[in-house]
Design goal:
With about 190 residues, this protein is mainly beta. It is about 10% helix and about 40% strand. The protein contains three helices and twelve strands. Strand 9 and strand 10 form a beta hairpin. The chain is elongated, with a radius of gyration of 21 Å.
Amino acid sequence: MKTLENTTVKKSDSGKLPIIPGTYPAHVSGFDTAEYNDSIVFNITYKIAPEAKQLTVDKMVLEDGNLTQVTDSEGNKVTISASYMSGKEFRGQGVWLTPNPPQGQGWRNRKYQQVCENFGIIFEKTDDDETVLGEIEEADVVGKPAIVKLAREEYEKDGETRFAWKVFQVYPWKEGKQLSSDEMGADVPF
């Protein structure tokens, strides 16, 4: 075999970049509900927006299931554009709504209210300034813009530690534009 002196491959040269935890602009791309006891869980899927290309993230490689920071020859962190995250979809943890909660347990719906309001959904108020919640439907949220906090959740299955990437928090994206369901189904160029 003929040796090529200046032709090497480093782990940091991986063609596939791993998912990096952080906050990203996104749009709601999927919506599903399930009933459990006296509550409804809303399973929402988010698609990272093309605007992610304006962000920079630390360049990481996946080694033995762990993210490792890539550094240059002088030991400085390498950063890259987050554009490769655009178009990737992630599920949220699930948002619960408990219709008619027992007296004093209205707090059970606080996260639901917060997520809906972060999407720009406005609920009616009573004369006593209490919020009157409604049950959202797919048409109310698909295409809504949001800033999402993405992180890795570890869990145990069959005696083995596994992980899944999920949206753990949803924030308002004031500059984000609502997309139609047609726009959500199409691949947006980036």
